[in-house]
């Protein structure tokens, strides 16, 4: 049974709030840091609280027939870096027992995950990646005013603890002009792994239940102390998993019910991405909509390019216009994630190096259980203002005069093993030009090399030529860190 009272809410339920802020703290006095922790632990929102809110929201929506429910909430969650746990006086023996990637921090893992060139840590925004980052407070709210008030309250609490310094504050928000869409214009936050004994499974007899295509994984993939997809006896095991694994575990015993959080500040070059899509579409004689979909694996509306329906599997006849706009049912829970890649082995419909296929290849190359050991719960949110060429034409320095092109994604993912999940995906799939097949190319959205190749079979009536496109680098890492997000019980232990 999942301990919903003990697990922080953003991990399993997800805040899903339009306004979120991230406050990075440094501790310089252990006793004071522990006192502060004791003070704020009662405010940390749990899975149980978030689920109760969701149920209430659904109920009001049903009653009022509108999503504009009156129920609103403001929440806080809390995580620590390895140096933060050290500053809280965790014993050396326990500190040593954490996994390598977490101990090293994201900056030290730059070579493993390909943060090179302009994405290299020496170009990151200070103090992101430095050992001065000890804790991360995540605030989330439906209302920007409530969020501000709540942050001010916490800033006031911090005034009574002068040894704790606010090192950095970053605001994230859903795009007002295109809600739910990231800055390149694509709907995000669609495909998430389901969790056994937590997520409602899809029911073929009742389409209102669950999301078809969302497989339910063992909770230990995302929270420590539960069965995982991998038998513990064979940590290298990457094949089908006949038996649920032993309880996933690493680090001290109090890490049970906690999760590792990967935070990445990813800047997106929207004008360059748009130009690339336009020029390439024109060169290949296809629409911009289809070109974008070939790169991402979904049209901008979120409509999947791949279909579960055999009749619409003619790769040469893919819609040129985004079908999600005309046929909103394609975006229903029933259809939006209900596909595999197995019958499109060659990537004629969804190129094998497209973003969603690289980051979760589903049944590519055989059993899906092989890829299910590398999943993450994504909790990202946008930062910066939307790119508006009309306005930026009037103001040569862009809409935001101080940082005209600083917009992108605050990527957050939860997993129980940073190396096997986030790092593996980034290194062995995304950045690897030979995955899944030799020469397929790199992920055109998030591969970190300055330039790379992207192989795109484009079926025409005459055959299926493979186009090898040279892709530039549209996403730059401007900071990041690995955190551990403890259970409520563990917060009490850390507070002493
Ligand atoms: Fe991605 N994008 O706009 O193109 N992502 N992503 N991502 N991403 C997804 O299914 C995007 C990033 C994953 O299960 C969609 O939710 C952008 C990182 C995974 O089918 C879109 C950035 C990593 C999935 C984007 C970015 C991932 C996924 C489709 C950076 C991990 C689910 C919507 C600025 C290393 C795949 C959806 C599945 C989906 C975009 C970052 C991973 C539109 C712009 C760093 C696992």
Set down the secondary structure blueprint.
Blueprint: H1 9-12, E1 19-27, H2 30-40, H3 47-64, E2 74-80, H4 82-87, H5 92-96, H6 100-104, H7 110-113, E3 135-141, H8 144-159, E4 164-173, E5 194-195, E6 216-217, E7 259-268, H9 270-284, H10 288-296, H11 323-326, H12 333-336, H13 355-359, E8 377-378, E9 381-383, H14 389-394, E10 408-415, H15 419-430, E11 451-457, E12 466-472, E13 475-485, H16 488-495
Parallel strand pairs: 5-6
Antiparallel strand pairs: 1-3, 1-4, 2-3, 7-10, 7-13, 8-10, 9-10, 11-12
Helix pairs in contact: 2-16, 9-10
This protein binds delta-meso nitroheme (N7H).
Q: What fraction strand?
A: 15-25%
State the end-to-end distance: 27 Å
What's the helix-strand series? HEHHEHHHHEHEEEEHHHHHEEHEHEEEH
Number of helices: 16
Rg, Cα atoms, Å? 22 Å
Quickly give the structural class: alpha+beta
Helix content: 25-40%
What small molecules does the structure contain?
Answer: delta-meso nitroheme
* Main sheet specs: 5 strands, antiparallel
The stretches of 5 or more residues where confidence is low (pLDDT under 50) are 233-244
- What is the mean predicted local confidence, pLDDT? 90
The counted number of beta strands is 13
**Shape by Cα distribution:** globular
Family: Belongs to the DyP-type peroxidase family.
Pfam family, one: DyP_N
Keywords: Heme, Iron, Metal-binding, Oxidoreductase, Peroxidase, Signal
Domain Dyp-type peroxidase C-terminal: 250-431
């Amino acid at each position: 049974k999942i301990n919903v009272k003990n697990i922080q809410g953003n991990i399993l339920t997800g805040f899903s709030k339009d306004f979120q802020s991230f406050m990075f703290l440094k501790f310089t006095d252990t006793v004071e840091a522990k006192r502060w922790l004791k003070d704020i632990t009662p405010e940390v929102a749990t899975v149980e609280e978030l689920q109760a809110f969701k149920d209430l929201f659904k109920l009001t929506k049903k009653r009022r027939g509108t999503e504009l429910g009156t129920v609103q909430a403001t929440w806080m969650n809390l995580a620590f870096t390895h140096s933060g746990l050290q500053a809280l006086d965790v014993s050396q023996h326990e500190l040593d027992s954490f996994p390598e990637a977490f101990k090293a921090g994201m900056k030290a893992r730059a070579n493993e995950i390909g943060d090179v060139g302009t994405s290299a840590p020496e170009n990151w925004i200070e103090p992101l990646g430095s050992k001065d980052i000890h804790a991360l407070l995540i605030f989330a709210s439906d209302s920007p005013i409530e969020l501000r008030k709540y942050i001010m309250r916490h800033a006031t609490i911090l005034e009574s603890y002068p040894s704790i310094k606010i090192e950095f504050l970053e605001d994230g928000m859903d795009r007002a002009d295109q809600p739910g869409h990231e800055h390149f214009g694509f709907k995000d936050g669609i495909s998430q792994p389901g969790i056994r004994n937590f997520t409602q499974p899809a029911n073929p007899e009742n389409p209102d239940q669950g999301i078809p295509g969302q497989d339910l994984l063992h909770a230990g993939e995302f929270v420590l102390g539960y069965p995982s997809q991998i038998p513990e006896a064979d940590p290298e095991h990457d094949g089908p998993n006949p038996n649920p694994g032993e309880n996933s575990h690493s680090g001290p015993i109090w890490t049970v019910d906690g999760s590792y959080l990967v935070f990445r500040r990813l800047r997106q070059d929207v004008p360059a991405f748009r130009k690339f899509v336009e020029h390439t579409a024109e060169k290949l004689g296809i629409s911009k909509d289809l070109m974008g979909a070939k790169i991402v694996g979904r049209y901008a509306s979120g409509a999947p390019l791949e279909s579960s329906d055999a009749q619409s599997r003619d790769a040469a006849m893919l819609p040129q216009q985004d079908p999600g706009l005309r046929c909103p049912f394609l975006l229903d829970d029933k259809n939006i994630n209900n596909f595999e890649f197995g019958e499109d082995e060659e990537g004629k419909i969804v190129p094998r190096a497209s973003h969603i296929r690289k980051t979760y290849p589903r049944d590519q190359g055989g059993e899906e259980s092989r890829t299910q050991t590398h999943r993450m719960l994504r909790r990202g949110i946008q930062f910066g203002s939307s790119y508006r060429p009309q306005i930026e034409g009037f103001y040569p320095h862009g809409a935001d005069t101080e940082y005209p092109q600083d917009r992108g994604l605050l990527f957050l993912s939860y997993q129980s093993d940073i190396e096997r999940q986030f790092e593996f995906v980034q290194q062995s799939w995304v950045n690897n030009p030979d995955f899944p097949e030799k020469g397929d190319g790199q992920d055109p959205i998030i591969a970190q090399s300055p330039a790379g190749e992207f192989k795109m079979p484009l079926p025409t009536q005459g055959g299926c030529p493979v186009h090898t496109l040279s892709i530039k680098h549209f996403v730059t890492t401007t900071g990041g860190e690995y955190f551990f997000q403890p259970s409520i019980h563990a917060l009490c232990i850390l507070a002493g």
